[in-house]
Write a structure and sequence with these properties.
CATH class: Alpha Beta
Helix content: 25-40%
Structural class: alpha+beta
Distance between the termini: 23 Å
Shape: globular
């Protein structure tokens, strides 16, 4: 059975965030670090080389595949901020409509500068996504 390519690491989160090249993206990453910590109550951990995660869950699919993954988090990518708060089980359009400019993928939310979105709405979305995930898989601290 294969394991997840993206696993927890011991890289310090602050070190990773301090090395984000673009100054605006770096500043936004530190804002998100505080927001996620406040909303989740979890300490951040690095997952792989570029994901900042809060909490974790263990999954086991009917196929037999199982593993551990971050419960919620973000990654300051070159083109945008990737935010991992949409586990894909529930439609959160009623929250997203008030967020501001964004795009969504299957389990990701993509935003540009945080100054263009409503951080209170983002906090609500983080909590809703985490609660939704917790209803399916037990979420624990990392």
């Amino acid at each position: 059975m294969s394991s997840n390519v993206t696993a927890k690491t011991d890289q310090p989160v602050t070190q990773f965030l301090s090395q984000v090249e673009h100054p605006g993206r770096r500043e936004d990453a530190f804002v998100l670090e505080n927001l996620f910590r406040d909303v989740t109550g979890f300490e951040p951990r690095m997952w792989g080389a570029s994901l900042v995660g809060y909490g974790q869950y263990h999954y086991r699919y009917d196929s037999g595949r199982e593993g551990d993954f971050l419960a919620t988090g973000f990654s300051p990518r070159k083109a945008n901020m990737s935010i991992y708060i949409l586990p894909g089980y529930t439609n959160f359009d009623h929250i997203l409509r008030n967020l501001g400019p964004h795009k969504t993928g299957k389990s990701c939310l993509y935003v540009g500068r945080l100054s263009k979105i409503d951080l209170d709405v983002l906090a609500t979305l983080i909590r809703a996504g985490l609660d939704d995930l917790s209803a399916r898989w037990p979420v624990t601290a990392t």
